[in-house]
Design a protein that fits this description.
The chain is α/β, with parallel strands linked by helices and about 290 residues long. The chain folds into 2 domains: about 210 residues, Vaccinia Virus protein VP39 (Rossmann fold, 3-Layer(aba) Sandwich), CATH 3.40.50.150; about 60 residues, Orthogonal Bundle (Helicase, Ruva Protein, domain 3). The protein is built from 12 helices and 9 strands. A 7-stranded mixed sheet has the order 4-3-2-5-6-9-7, sandwiched between helices. The protein has a two-stranded antiparallel ribbon with strand order 1-8. The longest helix is centred in the last third of the chain and has 16 residues. S-adenosylmethionine binds next to β1, α3 and β3.
């Protein structure tokens, strides 16, 4: 038993499994135990926590979570990687750790049920309280929003994403990078960039920089699923044409530019403003003014 995966173990494993990392699946594997322990620490993982990890890959982060005595639900799209993970954990950390791991072979965006699969050693029906993942970069925002939507028990987490995407998720109103991911994330909780990650800790080395984004979920959400859908469609419309004034950008979803002006006025939002100035509360006020 040798613990976490360093560069030699990552290379050996990939060779044995005949894994040729693909860009399409965002396969850049972490081979630095210090970074893994840092992520687990920043995520505040406690012994006994049920953690969901999307894209465990060769197991670098999974091993760090299990080393911290968490129980892990790992969802991986690549069959070779999903199949090999329990064996890797057994070899690196022993059988006691391997029984705390459940692996689901699936596209994370297709999963709706996050309870333990049949045969799991976790308590029946238990749902994850933390999300800790090095997310596949091409689907990081949809995956994050999907998890927040479908796992109501998620309280907090840390995800590794491409720098630009992480800065965008955590951006405040008024900045150039504030956009639809920022507002949608703010529906669920507080998001901030909690660290940077160098390129050299990955194999293969990616051609983008990465950051760690931490979040704390709000104690309660601003409204139900129906209100959330209405808010999100206003957000998509506002940022789909972000250079246009709101009365114009929202004319499609609100019927006409006149209707949009009237609704915005009822909501107390300036019809000549642009989406990038609006907080989640402003979008909520507009959605409520349409009802
Ligand atoms: N967690 C590992 C690590 O830190 O070394 C691997 C991270 S790698 C950036 C992303 C992983 O997500 C890959 O293992 C890839 O196969 C997997 N993946 C890509 N798209 C996915 C999806 N839609 N659902 C689940 N897993 C996915």
């Amino acid at each position: 038993m040798s613990g976490l995966l360093g560069p030699a173990e990552v290379r050996d494993l990939a060779e044995r499994l005949m894994v040729n990392p693909t860009k399409k699946l965002g396969q850049n594997f972490v081979h630095d135990p210090n970074t893994v322990r840092r992520i687990v620490r920043l995520a505040g993982v406690q012994a006994g926590d049920r953690v969901v990890e999307i894209g465990p890959g060769l197991g670098s982060l999974t091993l760090g979570l299990l080393e911290a005595d968490a129980s892990v639900l790992a969802i991986e799209i690549d069959p070779r990687l999903a199949e090999a993970l329990p064996t890797t954990v057994g070899v690196q950390l022993g059988d006691e750790a391997a029984v705390r791991l459940d692996v689901v072979l699936s596209d994370a965006l297709e999963v709706r049920d996050f309870t333990p699969p049949t045969g799991s050693s976790a308590a029946p029906g238990v749902l994850p309280v933390r999300l800790v993942a090095n997310l596949p970069y091409n689907v990081s925002v949809p995956v994050l929003l999907h998890l927040l939507e479908h796992v109501p028990t998620l309280q907090s987490g840390v995800v590794m994403v491409q720098s630009e995407v992480g800065e965008r998720i955590a951006a405040a109103p008024g900045s150039k990078i504030y956009g639809s991911p920022s507002v949608k994330a703010a529906w669920y909780g507080d998001f901030r960039v909690v660290g940077k990650v160098g390129r050299q800790i990955f194999w293969p080395v990616p051609n983008v920089d990465s950051v760690l984004v931490g979040f704390q979920r709000h104690a309660s959400e601003p409204g139900d699923a129906d209100l959330r859908r209405r808010v999100f469609s206003l957000v998509d419309a506002a940022f789909g044409q972000r250079r246009k004034m709101l009365r114009q950008a929202l004319s499609g979803v609100l019927g006409s530019s006149e209707n949009a002006t009237a609704t915005l006025e009822r909501a107390g939002v300036d019809p000549t403003a642009r989406g990038e100035r609006l907080t989640i509360d402003d979008f909520l006020a507009i959605a409520r003014a349409t009802a």
